[in-house]
Amino acid sequence: MATEPDLLTGDFYGFQHLLDDREQDIVRRTREFLAAEVAPIANAAWAAAEFPHDLVKGFAELDIAGLAYRGERSLLTGFLAMEMNRVDPSLATFFGVHSGLAMGSVNRCGSEEQKQRWLPAMARMEQIGAFALTEPEGGSDVSGGMRTTARRVGEDWILNGAKRWIGNATFADLIVVWARDEADNKVKGFVVERGTPGFTATRIEHKVALRTVQNADITLTDCRVPEANRLQRATGFRDTADILRQTLGGVAWQAVGVMMGAYEKALAYAKQRQQFGRPIAGFQLVQDLLVRILSNVTTSLALVTRLAQLQDEGVYRDEHSALAKAVCTVRMREAVGWAREILGGNGIILDHDVARFVADAEAIYSYEGTREMNTLIVGRAITGHSAFV
């Protein structure tokens, strides 16, 4: 095991010690890249709602895309997600959509030929992926309420419908689109390549969270996709759910990263901010808030660490991921609010980063399953009774 790793301020119990030396090195390299290249531009990109495409090359050089599908431990990919989110949840979300949802779909549902066709280039980030599941009129009822359709015509499929909130879609090279087959009513996956006629992606404007992420409304109008681009092992919504179960745990790690980033900024601010002739870090009420935040970070980090271990052991279930997502995002909401409180009026401007964490937390709290839906998943598991409509 690694000894004396460069622990983060927010890793109070030293969970990073659970990574081996090689994994520690990957985390360190990622942390250095984020500090040098991402942190300096994060606020400006967020304020402008523009994606910094020039940083993709740096992400690619880290060689961390799709690690979950390249034999690496869930514990490592979790720590990497945490590292990214403690600096910039927007770029972390971009990476998660590409590496988790898009690459995960190809890996889980693609044939061997399709994996060889797409995954190597996606791992090198030469081709960027997106994941199109959510629809304008559908949220939690995405399974039964999917309106996007697919119709087989010879060796092609004709897709019609609309998708909403699709991250990376305005510039992605490969968009995994989920649609209901008109013939058998089963949900199937299709890889739509950029420039395909009948596919349009329009950026969603006026967001107040994850502004750097290029979310889009997608319209599919007689969009013709070859059979070779249908994910061959996606035969129903259960396959889609398998992918979401994998990434749901990643959202819990995101939440830990967000509150850790807010904690670090609030602590640094409290140490330098002077009031009544001394740093506010020496005031009892400020220390109480800092310890509350750290408590949320530490207990949530313990939860997701155990979740990653269950994933690596192959024994985790839907309810494990659901509980982690529900608990960690609630704790995140509390933590970023307390961090903003410590900063007072400075907590609502971007200069000190906390305002960005507060806003971005709202998106992470909601996406990939609301607290209520995840509560019902856990409730069904512990009682044996389904309370879903």
UniProtKB/TrEMBL annotation:
Q: Name one Pfam family in it.
A: Acyl-CoA_dh_N
Ranges where the Acyl-CoA dehydrogenase/oxidase N-terminal domain occurs: 21-126
Keyword entries, A-Z: FAD, Flavoprotein, Oxidoreductase
Q: Which BP terms in the Gene Ontology apply to this protein?
A: fatty acid beta-oxidation
- Top-level taxon: Bacteria
EC number(s) on record?
1.3.8.6
Q: Which cofactor does it need?
A: FAD
Q: Residue ranges of the Acyl-CoA oxidase/dehydrogenase middle domain?
A: 130-223
Domain Acyl-CoA dehydrogenase/oxidase C-terminal intervals: 236-382
Q: Per the record's keyword annotation, is Disulfide bond included, yes or no?
A: no
- Fetch the Gene3D superfamilies from UniProt: Acyl-CoA dehydrogenase/oxidase, N-terminal domain, Butyryl-CoA Dehydrogenase, subunit A, domain 2, Butyryl-CoA Dehydrogenase, subunit A, domain 3
MF terms from GO for this chain are: flavin adenine dinucleotide binding; glutaryl-CoA dehydrogenase activity
The entry sums up its family as follows:
Belongs to the acyl-CoA dehydrogenase family.
Q: What is this protein called?
A: Glutaryl-CoA dehydrogenase
Task: Say which species the protein is native to.
Answer: Crossiella cryophila
